Amino acid sequence: MTPLYYLVSAVLVGWHKVWGTVFNADGGIAWALSIIGLTLVIRAALIPLFVKQIKSSRNMQLIQPKVKELQKKYGHDREKLAQETMALYKETGTNPFASCLPILIQMPIFLALFRLIDKAAKNQTGNGFLSDALAKNFGESKLFGSIPISASFTSPDGHTSVQIVAAILVVAMTATTFLTQRQLMSKNMPADALSGPYAQQQKLLLYVLPLVFAVGGIAFPIGVLLYWTTSNLWTMCQQFYVIRNNPAPGTPAAQAKADRDAAKARRHGGAAVATEVAAEPEVDRRPTTRQQPKKQTREQRKKSGGAKPSGTTPEGDQQ
């Protein structure tokens, strides 16, 4: 955990230097905003993994009909079914474990932050770039002057306000976890993927993960709850953006995007037609009269060298 202590403490202390110049460096607001800043830095660094997660989840959804065909064909032979399924994953570039990467990588960081807060509160000792003096300051910091950032719902330090704030954060953390998973299943999964083992796995995560966070969250310090709630909000907004702008084919989100694109095209097309009509120059539709040639006398024709006036005919000469 030592490298993680250095990583987490470096980002945390860096943000504290920034917010300490704006707010009281010894106050809980500066430390709370530092934890939120740490969350944003970690989540921004995990964007490439999130992209892989989205691609893997999409591939898993799209290949579900083929997986069902394999299950029907090799359902009696588990070894052959496993081989064919892994071959299908390899052929389509699908990693069934990629969807777990962001949360698996976050867990050690989450644990490192938990240990930093815990040691700062109980022993007033630091780790990594968090010195003992900063650790003492961190452990004793209070939000709104009365809510220790290191306290939890189960250890409120005699403050009812700690339990209220902790309960609000636990509910927010649980709700954002549920809504994020629900958003994925209701908008970005095709009808074929809503049944079968993968769908059962997603449904299990939909209800089990929020329950795990709700039960475990009451023991988390308020600082850790701030980290996890902010991370969940980031995930929910990031997923909403991806689903809206790059949905999986054959999903309600894809149909909604197609409808938006069609409406946008109609609006832009109507404006273009109107502009073209307005810009079209008016054409004079009146009939034009043919200019008749002027008659010349014999003397005028001799002076001009016998040249015939423009538009004259032999019949005109005879006249």
Give an account of the 3D structure.
By secondary structure, the protein is an all-alpha fold. Helices cover 70% and strands 1% of the residues. The protein is built from 13 helices and two strands, in the order αααααααββαααααα. It has helices spanning 2-20, 28-45, 47-62, 64-74, 78-92, 101-122, 132-140, 160-187, 197-217, 222-245, 252-279, 298-303, 314-318; strands at residues 142-143, 147-148. It has a two-stranded antiparallel sheet. β1 and β2 form a beta hairpin. α1 crosses α2 (28-45), α6 crosses α7 and α8 runs parallel beside α10. It starts with a helix and ends with a helix. Residues 271-285 and 307-319 have low confidence and may be disordered.
Number of helices: 13
Task: Give the low-confidence spans.
Answer: 271-285, 307-319
Radius of gyration, CA atoms, in whole angstroms: 37 Å
Listing every helix as H and every strand as E from the N terminus to the C terminus, the arrangement reads HHHHHHHEEHHHHHH
Main β-sheet description: 2 strands, antiparallel
> Structural class of the secondary elements?
mainly alpha
**Helix fraction?**
55-70%
As laid out across the biggest beta sheet, the strand order is 1-2
* Shape verdict: flat
Mean pLDDT: 77
First-residue to last-residue Cα separation? 116 Å
What's the total count of β strands?
2
Approximately what portion of the residues adopt beta-strand conformation?
Answer: under 5%
